[in-house]
Amino acid sequence: MKAIYYDGALAFTKEYAMPKRKAGEALVRVLAAGICRTDLEIAKGYMDFRGISGHEFVGVVEQCDEKKWVGRRVVGAINCGCGKCAYCLRGMERHCPDRSVLGISGRDGAFAENLVLPEQNLHRVPDALSDEEAIFVEPLAAALEILEQVSIRPTDRVLLLGDGKLGLLIAQVLHRIGCDPEVVGKHRKNLSILSKKGIRTRPAEDETEMREGQPLRYDLVVEATGSPEGFEQACGWVRPRGTVVLKTTLAGASEIDLTPLVVDEITVIGSRCGPFAPAIRWLEERAIDVRSLIGRTFPLEEGLAAFEEASKREALKVIIMNNEQ
Question: In the chain, at which end, N or C, are there fewer CB atoms within 10 A of the end residue's CB?
Answer without folding.
Answer: C
